Amino acid sequence: MNTNYILNSRLQRSALNLRAATFAGLALLSLCATSFHSQATQVANKSQETNKAQETLSQDNLIYMLTDKGMIVIELADFIAPNHVKQFTALVEEGFYDGLDFYRVIDGFVAQGGDLSEKKASAHNGPLQAEFSRISEPKSEFYPVQSPDLYADETGFIKGFPAGRDTEAKTEWLLHCPGAVAMARTNDANSGTSDFYIVIGQAPRQLDRNMSVFGQVVYGMEHVQAFSRGKREDGGQISDASQRSKIISARLGKTIPKQEQIVLTRPTVRGDIFQQRLEGGRTLDNPFFHHKGNGNVDVCYYRPMTSVAQN
Question: Does pTM surpass 0.90?
């Protein structure tokens, strides 16, 4: 047998195997590169989403309440108090609040509105089970900012709402910051029906986990602050109905004609704009401040503030 033929054949097979291995290696490198590019793209997209500076509030979660002092827009929190939101929106849809008033207004505390006479008929004002807090799920949207807090293990935000969390009980709730909207009740925790209140003074945080907070004012807080006050010795109740601030109408945002909707935006809590504000609150890095504090922040003050979108 020709040894040169055998040698040449072996060399040819080796060359073929080398080319095959090279092609396989290149294919693997290409696949790895594609996979890496895909993962990098996902990370980049996630990073862009995380650093998204602003968000637009959905009209589906807004209530437009026109008062004799001006328009108020309330953002609803069905993620924390779904049954209260459901009943409140049902009452709004049937026009229950139209023509009612804010009959109990205590300066520096709350403005309470609804049907003081309890004579207005409704198919949606039955007593509600309390929704003071919810179980903190592993994938909770809670974004921690301050720990510890005077009234909670941690405070932070859930979907733009100031919130607290109990790390041992694994529960979370919305805070009684200025502008918080909650259902009024008697001593019975499960007695809330239709009357509600808006926090208008310093945050009465002792009410946290004792009342069902289901929303927050995101527009027109200056109109709420303009409501007629009652006397403290009367518990803030305004006996003369003609002196009360009136609710002219209440409507769901999604039912308002688009050209009449108020487009509201706010910084996202993970975005650069809000993170810079938080950092400024922690460091007080400004020549105006001579005492720099201790690095703690009050989430009722350092919160994502809404603004009307610019055209």
Answer: no
